[in-house]
Amino acid sequence: MKGILIAGTSSDAGKSVLVAGICRFLARRGLRVAPFKGQNMSLNSFVTREGAEIGRAQAMQAQAARVEPSALMNPVLLKPGGDSRSQVVVLGRPVGELSARGYHGGRQGELLATVTDCLEQLGATHDVVVCEGAGSPAEINLRRTDIVNMAVARAAGLPVLVVGDIDRGGVFAGLFGTTALLSPDDQKLVAGYVVNKFRGDRSLLRPGLDMLAKLTGRPTLGVLPYTHGLGIDEEDGLRVSLRGSSRESAAGEPYGRDVLRVAVAAVPLMSNFTDVDALAAEPGVVVRFVDRPQDVADADLVVLPGTRGTVRALEWLRAQGLADAVRRRAAEGRPVLGVCGGFQMLGERIEDEVESRRGTVDGLGLLPVRVRFAADKTLARPSGSHYGEPVAGYEIHHGVADVRGGEPFLDGCRVGAVWGTHWHGSLESDGFRRRFLAEVAAAAGRDFVPAPGTRFAALREEQLDRLGDLVEEHMDTAALLRLIEDGAPAGLPFVAPGAP
């Protein structure tokens, strides 16, 4: 099998971005490419055509590779919940809830076999598999239970590039230390480094790169510049993608009447916050994540997003004073949109013996909906039409909604200026999004008019091309292709901890 594994000095070092960029670079060369991450921990997930749940980052990387996302690309997904427990999703289906100790102390051998089998299947049907590690491969306390970093590289004989974020500082210590803490067998696979998010004059960095090569015997194959607005789907972290419309107005002045302000409640265990990326892509729409009642009162549209803890998020809304602020908005006829868990919170009541095990809990009472949590998870790719426009999305939820009135809205309902649906991703449908925003603007008394030329899918493609450009322009692509073809060079020196 031909491939490469991208490891990192830490979480958020740039692994997902680099994998996506390499996938797009290779796809442009006519190669059949597949992304792969053996184990992912994220609340941002996606549903494949076959109805399997995988990390959104791997779905984005598949788009970069110009292939259809598959459960093979992310065989193990951990979805954090409360009390240090996570739902374990294997091959796209939930198999149970485990604590961190229980997960690392139990099924690793079985899961590693699943991971390596999926990798082999991808390798058999693709020219190249570009693998992503998780966190850092130098977490020495977790080495025995590793199924995503060096264990994958060893199993498939893959060369490894380690990427570090220089914008955070300490990148040389991170790259050197990560290598030095690996076992001799693992070090044999570490073939080089990539520096991410560099600002300034590269000539000033050169002495450090030369010293790193002398210390480790390994070259740096790329220095990627700090680039704003890459617009990729994050594993976690509240970031508005694409046009980055979370920015404030110029000179702190109030936004004009032609600007639509969207406030997203930053609820605990937020999932699939990427739903608002399509709003942020619209010129004249400003998206912010908020946790104060005054921010809700000031907005033209409030979004209650999905969450892995609906009852917990509902309690947080009440404790923050946001629940009352949302109710006041609804009474005044001002727009509110609930998606998935947010939709459930807008209903009359929630019966939950599955997620929170809190029994019956009162909702916000703004929609005629009663929700019962089922043991089985709904995973679906629905499509239909609304406002006379085609619309598609995906569903990931345990809550089953009994809609008892209101106007139909996708699979949910609408009462006045309050909308609710289980459909993630519906706002990526351009015509539907424009009609919805026009209605929001009218209810908010704004002069905002959606731009007819905004095509979300095209914007996403542009961003993926930018990632491919970063690889092509700022990496030694000849060396990268040699690693993929031939594997890690023989005779790479051992780097002793603490040396020199």
TrEMBL record:
The active site is at residues 340, 424. PROSITE patterns: GATASE_COBBQ, GATASE_TYPE_1. Residues 261-430 form the CobB/CobQ-like glutamine amidotransferase domain. Residues 4-237 form the CobQ/CobB/MinD/ParA nucleotide binding domain. InterPro entries: Class_I_gatase-like, CobQ/CobB/MinD/ParA_Nub-bd_dom, CobQ_GATase1, CobQ_N, CobQ_synth, GATase_3, P-loop_NTPase. CDD domains: CobQ_N, GATase1_CobQ. Keywords: Cobalamin biosynthesis, Glutamine amidotransferase. Pathway: Cofactor biosynthesis; adenosylcobalamin biosynthesis. The keyword Phosphoprotein does not apply. Catalyzes amidations at positions B, D, E, and G on adenosylcobyrinic A,C-diamide. NH(2) groups are provided by glutamine, and one molecule of ATP is hydrogenolyzed for each amidation. PANTHER family: COBYRIC ACID SYNTHASE, DETHIOBIOTIN SYNTHETASE. Belongs to the CobB/CobQ family. CobQ subfamily. This is Cobyric acid synthase. The lineage of its organism: Bacteria, Bacillati, Actinomycetota, Actinomycetes, Kitasatosporales.
